[in-house]
Design goal:
106 residues; mainly beta; Aminopeptidase; two-stranded antiparallel ribbon; 1 helix; 7 strands
Length: 106
């Protein structure tokens, strides 16, 4: 996934992304987050979920895959833990290469 689009002598660079958790676009969403991109780093802010609808491990893995596709190496985010604001940094590894598909030919 490219982080920029070139049209004529203009380059449009993607610097911010809004993520919404929903089955199909236009329907009410259950979570939202903002990604601010700078080089190979990202900062996630404004992560909010509906009541009783926590941010899950599957959500985390989806965010991780998205960052891998953009070539992001480090992600920072703020969160509350034990009633204290805490900043975390996660190092994003590259996507594992898919093993080659083998086909049996008789």
């Amino acid at each position: 996934m490219s982080r920029y689009v070139q049209l004529d002598n203009w380059i449009f660079e993607i610097k911010s992304v809004r993520a919404i958790r929903v089955d199909s676009y236009g329907k009410p969403y259950s979570a939202i987050a903002n990604f601010n991109l700078n080089g190979s780093n990202a900062y996630i802010d404004g992560l909010m979920t509906r009541e009783q609808d926590d941010f899950s491990r599957d959500d985390y893995q989806t965010f991780r895959r998205f960052c891998q596709q953009l070539g992001i190496q480090k992600v920072q985010f703020d969160r509350f833990k034990n009633d204290r604001l805490r900043q975390d940094t996660v190092t994003i590894g590259q996507q594992e290469a898919q093993p080659p598909r083998l086909k049996l030919v008789l």
